[in-house]
Cysteine-rich protein
Amino acid sequence: MLSRKSFVVLLAMVGLSNAGPLAYGICQSGCNALVVACYAGAGFTFGTVTAGAGVPAAIVACNAGLGTCMVGCIAAGFTPTP
């Protein structure tokens, strides 16, 4: 059984726990899965298209969606999660 001192230390540590970086990584993985599906739907492979004047509009839209999703992940990274 925990002593009173050990219990107090354990309670103090609970408030310091943050899973924000883990949530951020999980969110980024989800965003990347979505952009891979978007590229596949447009008939391309993610990571093989270089930026330039000849980039199809569908790829530009996929990249814009990825950027929006990644910005949303910042909130997950900074939110303290016990």
